[in-house]
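Worked example

This section walks through a single chain of length 397. The input is the sequence exactly as stored; nothing has been trimmed or padded.
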Amino acid sequence: MKQKVIIGLSGGVDSSVAAYVLLKQGYEVEALFMINWKDSSVTLSGDCSWEEDILIARLVAKKLGIKLHVVDSSKEYMEKVADYMFTEYEHGMTPNPDVLCNREIKFDVFMDKAREIGADYFATGHYCRKEIIEKDGKQIYRLLSGTDPNKDQSYFLCQLSQEQLKDALFPIGHLIKPEVRRLAKELDMASADKKDSQGICFVGKVDLPTFLQQKLKPKKGDIIEIPANVVEDKKDLIGPNLNIEDNLDILCTDREYSPENGKLAGTHNGAHYFTIGQRKGLDVGGTPEPLFVIKTDIEKNIIYVGQGKNHPGLFRKGLFVRTNDVHWIRPDLALKTGEDNKYHVRIRYRQELQGATIYCRNTGLFIVFDQLQRGITSGQFAAWYQGDELLGSGIIS
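Given that input, the structure is written out below as C-alpha cells.
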C-alpha cells in the first residue's frame, strides 16, 4: 500500500515540481491549498492574489492528476502571524513573518489539516533537505541546507522542532532552481513561468507603513542625525586588547544615543514604521550621503540616522538572544550554561554564513562574530549552523 503525502500546493513553481517529484517517487499524493490572507487592499498593484494562486494550483493538480483540498486558514494566520507582527512592530522590533509563517502555519496548521486527510507525511517546496540519523537508540532529524546555494531556504525553517521535522518531506531540496524551472516547462505546468513570491508570507509585497497602519497609528517624532565620529568615539567597537568574555554585554547589545549626540534632521510619522538599515521613507534630503536608520527609540518616538551605508552606527560585533527566545532544532547538541562553541551564523535570508562564537550564559546566548555585522536588528532571527546542518536559532534582542 502506498504511503500518502499531502503537498502544500501554493500555485508556485517550487511546490508544483515538488508534487511531481513525489509522484515519481511512488507516493500517493494529494495537495492542499491554504487561503491565509484575503485583504488585497494593502498589497502593491500587480502582486498575485490568492484568487490567482488557487487557479494555478487547480491547473497544476489537474495536470498531475492529484486531488486538491482547499482550506481557509485566514483566521489562524491573523492570530498566529499578523497579530504577532503588529505587536512586535509596536514595541520597536522587526519580526520575520516568513519564519513565523513556517513555524505556526505551514508546519502547524497545515500539518493538522494534512493529518485530518489521512497523510503519512506532508511536504513543501522548500529548498532544504532532511536526514535521519540514530543516536543513543533514538532517531534524530537533521535539517540541512538546500543543494542550491542561491536558493537555500533552511533559514526560514530555523524555528522547527524535531516533532515538526519527523513527518516532513522536502522533495526538491536536492535540486537547483534552473532544474526546477526546466522540469516545470517540460511538463507544461501552469506555474512554469510564475515569478517567485516576494514580500510578506501569504500576503505579498506591501507598502509597510500602509500595512502597519491597519493597527498602528501615525505619531509625529524627530529624526536625529548622529555623526560618525560620535559612534567611533565610543570604544565599544572591539579593540585589540579587549577581553571578549568579560565584555559580552558591551559587544552584544545595541548602542544608546540621545538627541544631544546629534542634530535634528527632520520628522517622521512613527518610529514603529522603521527598522535598522532602512533608507527609503525618511524623506530627508540635502545631505552629502543618503541617511540610514541606525536606531529607533519607540518610547520617545525618535529615529536616529547616520550618513552613508558605511556609517559605524550600522555595524556591531555581536548580538544577544534571551534564554526564553533560544530554540534548538537539535536539543541533543544544545550548549549548556558556561559553554561556548564556534558556529556559522546568519542573521537574514540569503546572507552568507558568518563565522562566530556562541557563549551560553544564565541570561541567554551571546553571539560574537569574527567580523563586524551590518544591520543587526531586534526581532529578527539569528540561525546557527555546523557544516550544512541548521542546529538552532533565536530572536535577536
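What to look for: DSSP finds nine helices and 18 strands in the chain.
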